[in-house]
Amino acid sequence: MARWLDGDEHVPEDFTWASPRLYRVELGMGYLELPQAGGPLSRNILATRNVYILDAHQDLFVWFGKKSSRLVRAAAVKLAQELFSMAPREPHALVTRLQEGTETQVFKTYFAGWEEVIAVDFTRTAESVARTGADLASWAKQQETKTDLSALFTPRQPAMSAAEAKTLSDEWNEDLEAMEAFVLEGRHFVRLPDQELGIFYSCDCYVFLCRYVVPAEADEEGEGIDETEPDADAEAESASWVVYFWQGRRAPNMGWLTFTFGLERKFKQLCRRLDVVRTHQQQESLKFMAHFRRRFIIRDGKRNQKPESGKPAVELFELRSNGSALCTRLVQVKADASNLNSAFCYILNVPLEGSKETSSAIVYVWIGSKSDADCARLIEQIANEKFNSPWVSMQVLSEGSEPDNFFWVALAGRKPYDSDADYLNYTRLFRCSNEKGYFTVSEKCTDFCQDDLADDDIMILDNGEQVFLWLGARCSEVEIKLAYKSAQVYIQHMKTMQPERPRKLFLTLKDKESRRFTKCFHGWGEHKRPPE
Q1: Which residues belong to any copy of the Gelsolin-like domain (predicted)?
Q2: pTM of the model
Q3: Domains by residue range for the chain, with CATH
Q4: Hey, which of 95, 178, 255, 449 would disulfide with 282, CB 3.0 to 4.6 Å?
């Protein structure tokens, strides 16, 4: 050993490295105790409540646990200085103080099993690591106790009866005293003509100013009844104003800004109590829908816009109710025979070529063989009120009695189409999201639409035969794994609840949806594109 220290080029063959000694600093009965830790040194020996001195024969290390007392720390520093001077050491030897969690690499080499290799997953992005941390295993363990899948086990919301829907509609319309409708034309809102009330265009924005008056309840015993003329101020106090802003799915957000900085300010100057409700296409509230008494028509395009080809195109409208008669809409769909369904009713508007009148057309009211009688009566009424005119020839057709010359030609020829809509009795849409900080599954209402498919999340759609896992364009890998497990759990649960209807799991991507998926959505079309 001496020869090696004196500069000998070779280490003697009988040289052995003396193992370092680890002492634990403790307070005894009026004096310090310095017991030596026995056995091989490992990381588990270091307790966070203690202070240790590691004598490596040259360097000396004082290790402070995070929960150790200040008195023991101060005593350990002085004791380390005494211990350092008791044995001969090299001039470069040092006394190093270390806090738990800030150990140097030299200190760690004296302990067995102190792993310093950092696991790196090069397949993950920086955003993913920032959200969940580098250790996915520990993050997954935390998530196990923070998941909410209760929506998968709740029964499906029952459909509202026709009597209940009529009662609600009558109550809401009884409170409605007046409603003024406006539509955005250019940069200004203009009054909507009465004959266009209930007709919406997907590229336009509409404003409805509603005045509600709640009648005062009379005293049961007839006491305190004032038979004098009602005070105008008192009547104004009992009235409330609600503004509904309706935005089509193709309409830009500029309409909302125009309303906020223009028409809304004028309304607030005239109305004492004003509530503003912003709603989007096919996401309307039941109360708003009730004011149109099931005459709710959604057309593609923009109001008063001339067709690009110079001649009007063929239009096909589908009448459907989702979960309630209040949610009845007549939505324009692609004019193709494959979009027909024997369980629904349709209106086909076929413009006549070569006619002097641009509005001349043949309007077919198509009644499916399995459609409801109430829907058949309703669509005839809508056709008479909203589509009929002196230049229009209207015909009511039952399924199977269609003329070939105009009807099927307008729909690009005969094609196979669905003969039932039994899936409407089973459709459920779930949203899988991690926005709350943990994984949750929530169910959309039965009146869901295409725009409920969120790009940031994953959706689970059940149509009674298949369960679809729909992946948004910006969903995370963790959400995909958890949603896949959730879909499997849901299928097993439904196998117990409905053994006669076994489900199969399918995966679908945005813009790659099949007909089995899209038929569950009323008025399916192209997905909305964010502004570039």
Answers
A1: 40-107, 442-498
A2: 0.70
A3: 2-108 (3.40.20.10), 162-215+234-299 (3.40.20.10), 315-410 (3.40.20.10), 422-518 (3.40.20.10)
A4: 449
